[in-house]
Amino acid sequence: MSAQAGPKVTVQTLAQMKRDHRKIAMVTAYDASFARLVDQAGIDIILVGDSVGMVVEGRDNTLPVTMDQMVYHCQSVVRGRDASSTNAFGSGGRAQIVGDMPFMSYQVSVEEGIRNAGRLIKEGRAEAIKLEGGAEYSELVHRLVSIGIPVMGHIGLTPQSVHQMGGFKVQGRDASQAQRLKNDARALSDAGCYSIVLEGMPSDLATEITKDIDCPTIGIGAGVGCDGQVLVIYDLLGMNESFRPKFVKRYDNLAVRVRTAIEQYVTEVRGGQFPDEDHSFSKDAPAHKMTTPYGSVRATAGGQPERDPDASGAACIPIPIRPKK
To answer: Looking at 57, 111, 139, 199, which residue is catalytic?
Structure first.
């Protein structure tokens, strides 16, 4: 069941959620279809992550992802989010959309970082950007915030530093690493980050950082003491059976369900069972015309779905659609 639509999530919303001790839910999305669904489900933040390089493109790490790719995926997610409902701002959707700064889009210079962050906002239509790294990026964060670009930080296990770390390994287990992460979190918060992702670190360290800084923390593999949590949507839905890290909880097993559905489709096509009469057109025109695309389902005034009689059954499963207000 879809969560109730609420006011648009903003930087101020998230700050208030921390003050009120209300947990923040964030998930990744890379396309319009998933963005629409997660917004309808009541997610607070959609992260258009450079993890797209791994879970969509099939790469070993996030390093090859480019700015052009991130702009493209941000645009797709915004369109999907905006199609889900209407908020008080007059645009669709509730969730805040954050675009990831890919590897080498901000490491060369502050000026290049500002330019590329601007692309995610102007071209990608993201509402904030996320960048990996600690105190060394404080100046960039300060400059971005001063010109009106909200910045989400990211410390701990930072995937863009996978080669330097020797793999995807938990960070902050020894005293010196833990102190460095605390210093990084404080520096980023002081520079103006409105939120910081804490990834792959001991839960007690993440809890300590969360209590020490003013901005909300969002954990992934960092325990329940953070102000919120984030997961990659493909991991959450169980779409890769071979990927089972400790920090991921699977809320479904779509790998099996998708294969089962496609196997059934293949069987019916090869057996001549699909398409049947319910999924085929006749030479006679329908009794009344519909303006929706053939095979679609539209919402009536009461919010109930109505089928195009010229494409009966083509929409598979009748799904209630929330009428726009």
So the answer is: 199
For the domain bounded by 11-236, which CATH number is listed? 3.20.20.60
Q: Residue 169, exposed/middle/buried by CB under 10 A (0-12, 13-18, 19+)?
A: exposed
Q: Given this model, what pLDDT does residue 115 score?
A: 98
Return d(Cα 220, Cα 134) in angstroms, integer.
Answer: 17
Sequence-distant (6+) residues with CB within 8 A of 12 are none
Q: Which helix (H) or strand (E) holds 181?
A: helix 175-191
- Going by their DSSP bridges, the two strands 45-48 and 96-100 should be labelled as parallel
Please report the DSSP string for 189-248 in residue order: HHHT-SEEEEES--HHHHHHHHHH-SS-EEEESS-TTSSEEEE-HHHHTT--TT---TT-
Domain-wise residue ranges, the chain: 11-236, 275-325
Q: Please tell me the distance from the alpha carbon of residue 5 to that of residue 39, in angstroms, as a whole number.
A: 9
Residues in the chain with pLDDT < 50?
A: 1, 4, 297-302, 306-325
Q: Confirm whether 199 is a catalytic residue.
A: yes
51-66 per-residue burial string, b: 16 or more CB within 10 A, e: under 16: bbbbbeeeeebbbebe
Tokens representing residue 288 in the block: 């009344």
